[in-house]
Design goal:
With about 400 residues, this protein is an alpha+beta fold. About 55% of the residues lie in helices and about 5% in strands. It has helices at about 5-10, 10-25, 40-45, 50-60, 60-65, 70-130, 160-170, 175-180, 180-205, 275-285, 290-295, 300, 315-325, 345, 360-365, 370-390, 400, and strands spanning about 135, 140, 240, 255-260, 265-270, 350-360. It is elongated and about 115 Å long.
Length: about 400
Amino acid sequence: MVPSHAASAPSSTKSARVDGVWKESRKTDARSKYFAPFGGEDSRRGAGDSEDAQLSDGNSECLSGCSSPLAHNQDAASTKKRTRGDECSDAENERAKLNRRRDALHEGSTKVKRAKQILKAKNAREMQLANRITLPSGETLIPNRLSTLEYKEETIQENTMAFLNELAANNNRPWFAENESFYRAARQDFESFVDALSQRITKDVDTTVPELPLKDIIFRIHRDIRFSNDQTPYKIYFSAAWSRTGRKGPYAHYYLQIQPNGKSFAGGGIWHADTQPLSLLRRDISRRPHRLKSILARDSISRGLLGLKGRVDKQKAVQAFASRNAADALKTAPKGYPRDHPELELLRLRSFTVGLPLTDEAVKSNDFLEHIVDIFTKVEPLITYLNSVVMPDIYMDSSVRGSDNTV
């Protein structure tokens, strides 16, 4: 029903009131349910009696609650206020949600750090107490540095050799996963020895070798089996190499390999040279063979590393050197060189290495570090020669490198 004051008012007054209400309703938010009925196209037309009838029929309930335009204005203002309040509330909720998410991420990061600390402590405890190795002699060794076993950086420990023996007999992933604590302890022992040896090499053996992190010196124990007929996943030895660029790069290397049953080795040179270094070496041997021959004839190499005895001359040293590197040598003359070349024995080589095998007793002895330093000191002249050929220093003049016309 239409209010009495609305019914007695002139048509123009109703129209003005309706127009006023409509105009006020346009100022409110579209989400307001109270003024929604006044937002249609008919209200914009705003004409006379037909509009009064529409208001009386469809909106009598709404109009009954609107006593005056002032009331509508107040309601519109309150609606705007509520809308702004809702928007502020939404922003606050979103901000609170972001804060909760940030706190959750921080808490998660803290939990991860704590879990890593717990895991590290657990692994250390396992290395200390579990997975012990029983040697054939009946002696029980705990493969880690936290045990009562005395560790020395200048030697390789008995339990490291025992681990490599066990790995050779069980070279498969399930066994390795079950005995990973053995591996971590043995590798830690080898890393300590390599670290001590690196300091001696850079200081006393070859000053051109820089101090490098262990990851650039020690080889991985995992084998690359993608193109190999041997599908065993792990190497059964520990190995490391030192050069101006670590274990990788074009330079000649000092090399150490630790393997039980007398298969350890220490030496140096270039093994299985790439095409470009090999081409440079063959050219230098062809033009200046006396350089390499004089180095091989030194007592430190011919007697100390090639095992020659008695009177040693250059020809015997060359034959012993060629025999040591014959495994991957060519059967005939390389391309571009005649078959009757006087230096054919050296030209056929693809590896240029010297070294000595090491017994298990020598590896586990207290003076093992000094023994390796002595071997590397004997290898150093060959390393220096090979580097001067494959990667000559730019500051070296022709008097040091030698003239290309020298015979």
